[in-house]
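Data card: per-record layout.
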Amino acid sequence: ASARLKPGTNAIAGVSWAQTRGIAKVEVRIDAGEWKEALLGQELNRSTWRQWLYEWDAPIGPHTLTVRATDSLGQVQTSHRADPIPDGATGWHSVVVTVSA
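The structure for this 101-residue chain is written out next.
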């Protein structure tokens, strides 16, 4: 089941984490479009989760929202998905949404 949204401005938000390195940037991609930079919440320290927000003007239809983070060393999160064990989870997070009136 996908999430359902109304057309128009929707807040897309979440948290990102890069232990001891901190988060420098979070980007959101709608479908196969360009990566757009999200607004970041305050960084308490480099070991805490960092909130992010992207305001999306959602058109009617099905859409895939994908998110990736960049740490303070400039490392962009890999698209390769891996389970948490043994070395920690990797991969971009994606969600399918349906926008309808």
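Known properties of this structure: The CA atoms of residues 30 and 65 lie 5 Å apart. The mean pLDDT is 92.

See the next section for split statistics.
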